[in-house]
Amino acid sequence: MNFRDELTFEHYDKERLLMPSIASRLTEEENAFRHKMIEYIVSNHQPYTPEGDEVALAKRIDDKKNVLVVEEDGKIYDIYPVTSEEMPHKVTLADGRVAYAMCAIDALGCTYTFDQDIVVDSVCSNSGTPIHIEVKDKKIVSHSPEDIRVLNADLQNSEVWAEDCCCGMLYFRSQKDFDEYAEKNDLCPDCTFCLSLEEAFSVARMLFSDNE
Questions:
Q1: Calpha distance 61→83 (Å, rounded)
Q2: pTM for this structure?
Q3: How far apart are CA 89 and CA 69, in angstroms?
Q4: pLDDT per residue as tens, the chain (212 positions)
Q5: How many Å separate Cα 69 from the centre of its chain?
Q6: Which of the four CATH numbers 3.40.50.300, 3.40.50.2300, 3.10.490.10, 3.30.450.410 does domain 12-208 have?
Q7: Which stretches of 47-194 are DSSP H helices?
C-alpha cells in the first residue's frame, strides 16, 4: 500500500496536500543527473555548471518545472531540496556535510534525498527562536520547541515553486507565532497550510522519497 493512502491532516482535506515525488516526474537519466548536481552543490557550496551534453539535459529537466532552475548565466544554484547559497534552514547530514535548504519542507526532505539521518537548525520566522529537529531512521526523534508549526504553500496550484513558494515555507515555534505572522503578512488561508511538524514531515516524504 502506498503510504499516501494512510495520510491524514488534522485541519485539511488530504487531497489538497497530496503530491507525487519529484523523482517520479523524471527519467532514470534525469534523476541520476539531478543527484549528481545535488551532491556537487552540497559538497562544494557552489552552483553547478552543466557542460557539454549536460546543458541540454538540464534544460530538459528545467522545462518540467519544480525540480531545478537554470539561471541566465547557465548555472544551477538551486535544485530541490538544496541550494548553493547560505539560507536560514541548515541541515547537518550524518556524514558531516552541511546542506542549506530553500524552505522548511526541503530541510526535512534531506533525510530522504541523502538517505541519511539529519539535524535541522532553523529559526521561528515570527520570534527568531531557534528551531532544532533531529531525524533518525526516517523518523523525527527530537525537536524543540515542543509545538513547532510549519507554513506550507499550496504546491498543487503553483506553476513555479521557486517564485511562488520556496522562501515562504517556514518554521514557527507555536501556533500563536504562526497566527501572528499570518496576520502581519496577510497570508491567504485558502492557499497556505499550517501543519504540525509530523504533517510537514509527511509532505517532505511525498516530495523527496524517490521510491515511494
A1: 17
A2: 0.92
A3: 19
A4: 689 999 999 999 999 899 889 999 899 999 999 999 999 999 999 999 999 999 999 999 888 777 888 888 999 999 999 999 999 999 999 999 999 999 999 999 999 999 999 999 999 999 999 999 999 999 999 999 999 999 998 776 655 454 444 556 899 999 999 999 999 998 888 888 999 999 999 999 999 998 88
A5: 15
A6: 3.30.450.410
A7: 53-63, 104-113, 161-164, 175-184
